[in-house]
Design goal:
By secondary structure, this protein is α/β, with parallel strands linked by helices. Helices cover 41% and strands 21% of the residues. Helix 1 runs parallel beside helix 2 and helix 7 crosses helix 8. The mean pLDDT is 96.
């Protein structure tokens, strides 16, 4: 039901080869490359090198993590990112929805119009654009995320999910339940406010999250509690233990 992977921005100081080697050692099957450091969209040769490394390590690209912003970029500016994603071997692109929370945003109508245009482009290009469920953006609450999905009105415009470290566990569960039809990949971490903790510390709540999410889904580690790439294997083992307990019905 679940494939385990990692988001490359977790290790911005490491090379693509180092990240792939760590992912393979941790038993992961996929990676989301970030467009800011590891996989810039207008460097096709570098992208092809990464694609070759993926084949070498037996790890696929499940998504392209862009820093395209719905509130800043014109919809047509997504096209170079789509081409980059194709070189990497994925049809899923993560995009951002600005730097203002839903309740503070004053230009909602313009943002909804851009979302509809982006959804049309995504459909024409046979890709899926996914907003990140991130604090301080239009999708920082279930009401904002639902409004975005309804405005776009397309199977090619969806959402990632991740727990909001500034909301309660109950609120995070409500987000899943309200938005589940639009949810795709999941960013995995155990945070409370600005503090980062090992995933094992959140075993029970992650069992609940994953039970509500269901599968099939990509579960992607985003950042380590200590920032070290060597910790990836430990976090992967913790997630596999959570999944094993979930599948066996252990409480």
């Amino acid at each position: 039901m679940f494939d385990l992977g990692v988001v490359s921005i977790s290790f911005r100081d490491k090379s693509p080869a180092e990240i792939l080697a760590a992912a393979k050692a941790a038993g992961l099957s996929c990676v989301e490359w970030g467009s800011d450091v590891h996989a810039p969209c207008r460097q096709p040769e570098k992208l092809r090198e990464i694609a070759a490394l993926q084949e070498q390590y037996g790890i696929s690209c499940c998504s392209y993590g862009t820093y395209f912003r719905v509130t800043r970029n014109q919809p047509e500016e997504i096209l170079p990112y789509i081409e980059a994603a194709r070189i990497l071997g994925t049809d899923v692109l993560r995009i951002w929805c600005g730097l203002t929370g839903f309740h503070e945003e004053t230009e909602k109508a313009e943002i909804y119009a851009r979302a509809r245009k982006l959804a049309q482009i995504a459909a024409q290009e046979s890709v899926t654009l996914c907003l990140e469920c991130h604090p301080g953006t239009m999708t920082d609450c279930k009401e904002g995320a639902l409004a975005m999905m309804e405005a776009a009105g397309s199977d090619h415009f969806k959402l990632y999910w991740q727990p909001n470290q500034y909301k309660t566990e109950e609120e995070n569960c409500q987000y899943i339940q309200s938005l589940k039809p639009w949810l795709t990949h999941v960013h995995v971490f155990q945070w409370a406010g600005p503090e980062k903790y090992p995933l094992a510390d959140g075993k029970e709540i992650w069992k609940q999250y994953l039970s509500l999410l269901g599968g099939p889904r990509k579960l992607l580690f985003e950042f380590m509690p200590d920032g070290k790439i060597e910790t990836l294997s430990r976090e992967a083992d913790a997630l596999r233990e959570i999944l094993q307990d979930l599948c066996s019905g252990v409480k």
